[in-house]
């Protein structure tokens, strides 16, 4: 009886270790391992799920020949929407291999969104006005 209980406790301990390792492996960035994201329960929605249009977590205004905010920090999985309202047309083009997916058309007036699925620092510019630059940090 006692032997049996000891054995199952050991099995349980092994499972906990495995689960902990698994969780640590999933968190990706070791620096962020301590800050576990607290997820709020999703509110029950009666509206139809939109697959195309994701909710914007950050809006970057594109006007007066600049992005504002030029530097911003978001969380993995969040979506940034650039809102173009300048006199001149602009775009959003990622700098470097990692930011290759960031590639908007040239927009006069309108919006363009991008969802960041990997943590990192993403730099971008306007290919028409390379002095216009911005950075999105994804944690
Ligand atoms: Cu521009």
TrEMBL record:
The keyword Electron transport applies. It comes from the Bacteria. Binds 1 copper ion per subunit. It is found in: Periplasm. One of its GO terms (cellular component) is periplasmic space. Cu cation binds at residues 90, 126, 129, 132. CDD domains: Amicyanin (cd13921). Residues 57-139 form the Blue (type 1) copper domain. Residues 1-23 form the signal peptide. Residues 30-50 are annotated as: Disordered. Pfam families: Copper-bind (PF00127). GO terms for molecular function: copper ion binding; electron transfer activity. This is Plastocyanin. Residues 33-50 have a biased composition (Polar residues). The keyword Cell wall biogenesis/degradation does not apply. Keywords: Copper, Electron transport, Metal-binding, Periplasm, Signal, Transport. Its cofactor is Cu cation.
């Amino acid at each position: 009886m006692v032997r049996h209980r000891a054995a199952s406790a050991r099995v349980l301990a092994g499972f906990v270790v495995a689960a902990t390792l698994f969780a640590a492996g999933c968190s990706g960035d070791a620096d962020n391992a301590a800050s576990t994201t607290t997820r709020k329960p999703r509110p029950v929605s009666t509206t139809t799920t939109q697959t195309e249009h994701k909710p914007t977590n950050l809006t970057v205004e594109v006007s007066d020949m600049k992005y504002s905010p030029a530097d911003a920090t978001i969380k993995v999985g969040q979506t940034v929407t650039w809102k173009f309202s300048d006199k001149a047309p602009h775009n959003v083009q990622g700098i470097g291999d990692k930011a290759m997916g960031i590639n908007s058309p040239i927009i006069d007036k309108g919006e363009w969104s991008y969802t960041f699925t990997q943590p990192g620092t993403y730099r971008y510019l306007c290919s028409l006005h390379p002095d216009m630059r911005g950075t999105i940090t994804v944690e």
